[in-house]
């Protein structure tokens, strides 16, 4: 993607997460926790990370996984990755 | 000296199972002699990966087998009918039979088993086929390569190459513990009298799919594998094959075979706790099952060859499980993956061979690349330099994704001394 607005990007992040976690997009709350609230596991976290990297052409350090616990936090990580790009 | 564990073994030499031949294809040497020298020297198989394109990966060190000539060993089957893992398996089987001093013509008249464990089968070929399909369409795929893919080829090709018709040939796909599973399966077949011999082991060839998978999990070390070290950074993928000849003690004695070691028992379980994370209780249980099957008390084990991948999760979980079974002062616990990388399905077969060679040659192979032991993995891992040791019982751990755990227990075979003990015990009974 050459240029995306912040809103479009946020929508895409949400879509990717919902796709991996197999939930509807209206089910996800920005601060609800993937593991505790949606029953996610560590492999799904990696799937989210790799899908984000592929879709946006960014690089997210594996150590960021610890932070990527909800939609809000993932969006922050993606935003930072764009800034570093 | 009367050994306590021997006292619990079946007295009948027809029901005792010994190892009489080994075939080795590894990144630290081909054949028993080179492999033994490599283990003793603490040789490292690490080098840049050449088995597949590594563009796009920041680091790509692996333990490839780069100086191996399968045509030296494979005489009957056309090489291009075999994928790389099958070439390793068939070559190692030929070597093992030769090492055991067995004539394939004699084996053909006996009942046998071929059991080979694997993680990836011929995924390397599959990777290449898919790349061809994507680039040039399905019509460009080579049918000869497609025919090499079924994992059953790993064991069936050994039977074909050696001309064995009265054998059960089975490929056991329990991933990183598969070599031990294959040995356990052959052990049961020999000790129950179902077969006269078993060719057991494991084989895998490095492939991009598995490298990429482990890489994405964050478990590939950038430079080298440092099991139990506080700075361990993960695995290096490796490849190769190990094949062991199993036969009854009676058969080995009758033909005057050299005996490397005795298979005392094994244990398997599948705790199914998690796809990739090991479970401490499941691992401990597998070890206890193996010791129970072998009739060995934890205190009698002189050495543990750990699964020891060098990942954060494996090493801490495995050493905790070891302490659950062996107490606060477990036997010395080494990882030959520090030298060989993780050769996947071949790993526990090669490790079982290493354990036997350690028993025979009275040394403990070191855990190389070691600087400082992680306090969370407090074991004596015999860092960097082999040590001389008198080993009577050695335990070989194999742990796989999905909680597939397999542990094999091997014992020194002391020849006449032990036979006399056995006779005495038999008389007393």
Describe this structure as you would to a colleague.
The complex is a heterodimer of chains A (85) and B (429). Chain A has 85 residues and is mainly alpha-helical. Chain A has one domain (6-84): ACP-like (Non-ribosomal Peptide Synthetase Peptidyl Carrier Protein, Chain A, Orthogonal Bundle), CATH 1.10.1200. Chain A has helices spanning 6-21, 34-38, 42-56, 71-84. The model of chain A has no long low-confidence stretch (mean pLDDT 91). Chain B is built from 14 helices and 15 strands. In chain B, strands 1, 2, 5, 6, 7, 8, 9, 10, 11, 14 and 15 form an eleven-stranded mixed sheet that branches. Chain B folds into two domains: 17-254, 3-Layer(aba) Sandwich (Peroxisomal Thiolase, Chain A, domain 1); 265-412, Peroxisomal Thiolase, Chain A, domain 1, CATH 3.40.47. With 429 residues, chain B is of the alpha/beta class. The two termini of chain B are 18 Å apart. In chain B, strand 10, helix 11 (312-326) and strand 11 form a beta-alpha-beta unit. At the A-B interface, helix 3 of A face loops of B.
